[in-house]
Amino acid sequence: MVTVHLEEEVTFSLLVLWKTKKYLQKEGRRKEEEEEKEKEEDEEEKEEEEKRKKKKTKETQNPLSS
Questions:
Q1: pTM of the model as a whole
Q2: Looking at the record, which segments are called Disordered (predicted)?
Q3: Residue 64: in which H helix or E strand, if any?
Q4: CB 5, CB 13: distance < 8 Å
């Protein structure tokens, strides 16, 4: 009787650990994807800002050519 109860507790504990591990892996992947997406957005913003700066530089150098 005691061994059955202990087996149930161990089985439940293993199940909880397994579910926790899966949850943490999922959260880790989600967090990595968010960070990667933020980096990509930052890079795009930098590229757009550089394009605007280049365009402004061209306009200030050649104001009559526009």
A1: 0.55
A2: 25-66
A3: none
A4: no
